Amino acid sequence: MHKIFIKLLATLLLSLAAATPACAVDEDGYDLWLRYRPLERAAQARLQPQARTLVLAGKPSPTTQAALKELQRGLQGMLGSAPAVSATIQDGSLVLATPAMLPELATASSPLRAELTALGSEGYLLRKTRLQGHHVTLIAANSDIGLLYGAFAWLRAAVIGAQPEAASAPKLQLRLLNHWDNLDRTVERGYAGASIWDWWALPDITDRRYVDYARANASLGINGTVLNNVNSKPEVLTAAFIAKAAAVADVLRPYGIKVYLSARFSTPLELKETDTADPLSPAVQAWWRNKADEIYRAIPDFGGFLVKANSEGQPGPQDYHRTHADGANMLAAAVVPHKGIVMWRAFVYAHGDDKGTDRAKQAYDEFTPLDGKFAANVMVQVKNGAIDFQPREPFHPLFGGMPKTPLLMEFQITKEYLGFSTDLAYLGTMFEETLHSDTKRAPQGLTVAQVIEGKALPEAARQAGLTGMAGVANIGSDRNWTGHHFDQANWYAFGRLAWDPQASARAIAVEWAAQTFSADARVTAPVVDIMMMSRETVVDYMTPLGLHHMMGTGHHHGPAPWVDNLERPDWNPVYYHRAARDGIGFDRTASGTNALAQYAPEIARQYADPRTTPTQLLLWFHHLPWDYAMPSGRTLWAELLHRYDTGVRGARELQSRWMALRPMIDERRHDEVAQRLRRQVANAELWRNACIAYFQSINGLPLPPGVTPPPKPLDYYKAIQVPYAPGRG
Ligand code: GCW
After folding, report:
1. Residue that terminates a domain, selected from 496, 514, 532
2. Contact assessment for residue 423 and residue 487, using Cβ atoms and an 8 Å cutoff
3. What is the reported pTM?
4. Which residue has the least CA distance to atom 1 on ligand 1?
5. Disulfide-capable partner of 26 in 123, 381, 668, 725 (CB 3.0 to 4.6 Å)?
6. Taking Cα atoms as reference points, which of 141, 149, 147 lies closest to residue 64?
């Protein structure tokens, strides 16, 4: 008996050892998805012959140097030795070349010529081919930055063990991070430490981290970054800060990343250099022109300005009875000689709050009359949904509502409303849901992705090619950059979707998991399962069935559906869920605020009836009685309870799936995620219990059999305070 037991134990231990990937050495997450750990022997044997030497076919530039360095770093890590850089092409060379470097790529007889032309200025081609009589692997592009992107793509394929993509070009021109970082290094809605931009130390002292930040972004094709918060300060446009921004720009430039700044509309007035900020004042216009000239002297490839105006107390053109277009066009005129752009945010809800206007309608009402009135170098930047980065929102009706204006998508990568960096939520699925939404707008029904790709724009605007996606960054000074190891996946997914808005969230998750943890399917598959269920789990325990905006005041963490005392009605959770004796939900149909009319007629018709409204958006559009019969056969009240329980079960499921991965993942990262998952379960239970206790206090209904009552009375949940929560900026 004893012997059998020992034998069994030995077998078990052996199989565990076999299951443990060789890389299970502690990691801190700093390397992100660019870890380049040693490959299995067989994979090494496949890779080695493809990169015996590295050849740059032309003169080096800082960008191609970065590409070579990255290839050496990657190959050193994966194979244990880095190939030498050589000037001559041989069998087994990995060759980086543009047509300008290697004229044979440009000759009419070259089969690659047409392919390359189609890839534009940033695309790349990976190909096993013959060059000068030798068998080589070719990374080809039309520009140095294309070569850098190609090098990263080649490395990604090598790590994952995939066939390198044959050819790829970005579908959007601008792929931008928006940092909500303040000049004192606090970060508004940041949950990963302090800002990585050390404004005090700049410009003389630049952190090595800036290079790794640039590498990570370039590996995804991110090509611009707005350094400072949209709630901006005038000082950022003073000479001292322009010099600091220029120092950052110098570090990022070789990686194809342009620097942009958030501009405060009243800057000249606040700096006391004009006596108004009226966009039609010649003195103000001249001030901005001079300011733009000054910036471009320091940063010749400066991208332009991002502006939050007349929103949440920020100054703007409406302070002078001018329109958003007047304001945007004035700034656009200042940067246009330098080929700069203005990104003007549509996140406004300044008017009508006290007149019962639905906040969800305000941006559309204010911006659609301005369609066609913006200068050619202005983009209107629109959040994915009409309220504010909630765990689930229908797509913003402005997508499809401004056919003459280039629209820049704004996603929030940092998880202000999805559990900060303590809860695990993969946002790839959320971004994908918005991007794949069909706006049902002419000509033949465009998805949101197609709208931001410019497919609805008139020909001239389409030719100008102003298209883009921005993501509010979740990056900070934390060693692992994003606080939660899995929040790295949200940075990653944003970047990959900005390159190709039609890419699949699942495929992106597979790529990320394989690079971040292990390409071993026994790791990748369960990690991807966790990721794919995570966001819906958060929706279930926070805001199921289309509920929204029920979080705690100010810090936005945890449940507070009872809040009804804030200075603006549309800051109160009760404004959004409208729970009362008779039912719950926000009537946005014709019998309510008619926000539905802002969508294409086909959608408006479909959603006018709760029976044909997607269940997941039901209470976003409808106010329904508690005993409304759901498709599941439950009453609405029972369904709501069921969803909360599903959310809590889901959180526990995330945890148990992760715990099962313990033998396969290095102890440090496993433990850091495990600790957060424990807290997530508690957070899920809190949301469930507090919301049920509150809604029950409103409807007075009993809990159906099998539903566990909240363990504490409502007052207990109401009394919970979270002082000093992070992210207040
Ligand atoms: O609602 C919000 C956030 C603010 C943010 C604002 C915005 C930068 O809570 O912190 O301010 O959105 O997007 O401008």
Report:
1. 514
2. no
3. 0.96
4. 388
5. 668
6. 147
In sequence order, the 6+-apart residues with CB closer than 8 A to the CB of 49 are 92
Query: Tokens standing for 654?
Result: 């995330």
Domain that holds residue 108: 26-168
Could you count the other beta carbons within 10 Å of the beta carbon of residue 9?
Answer: 10
Task: Report whether residue 231 contacts ligand 1, using a CB cutoff of 6 Å.
Answer: yes
**239 and 142: one domain?**
no
From 226, 232, 312, 381, give the residue whose CB has the most ligand 1 atoms within 8 Å, as the site to mutate: 312
- Residue 199 domain-assigned? yes
Residues 204 and 146 in one domain: no
How far, in Å, is the centroid of ligand 1 from the Cα of 534? 24
The HSE-up count of residue 695 (CA atoms within 13 Å, CB side) is 30
Report the amino acid identity of residue 437.
S
Active site residue 312: yes
Residue whose structure tokens are 């900020």: 277
pLDDT in tens, 60-105: 999 999 999 999 999 999 999 999 999 999 999 999 999 999 999 9
Q: How far apart are CA 491 and CA 498, in angstroms?
A: 11
| Spatial separation of the C-alpha atoms in residues 172 and 503, rounded to whole Å | 12
Distance 215 CA to ligand 1 centre (A): 28
- What are the tokens at 16? 């565990």
> Cα separation of 106 and 16, whole Å?
54
Q: Name 249's Cβ contacts closer than 8 Å, sequence gap at least 6.
A: 258, 259, 299, 301, 302
Q: Which of 312, 564, 602, 609 is catalytic?
A: 312
Cα 625 to middle of ligand 1, angstroms: 33
Say how many Å lie between the CA of residue 185 and the centre of ligand 1: 17
Closest residue by Cα to residue 421 from 429, 433, 412, 430: 412
281-312, pLDDT tens digit by residue? 999 999 999 999 999 999 999 999 999 999 99
Torsion of CA 102, 103, 107, 111, to 10 degrees: 0
State whether the beta carbon of 188 lies less than 6 angstroms from ligand 1.
yes
Atom of ligand 1 nearest to the CA of 383: 13
Catalytic position from the list 319, 388, 410, 540: 388
Q: How many domains does the chain have?
A: 3
Supply the Cα-derived Rg of the chain in whole angstroms. 27
**Which SS3 state, helix, strand or coil, does residue 18 take?**
helix
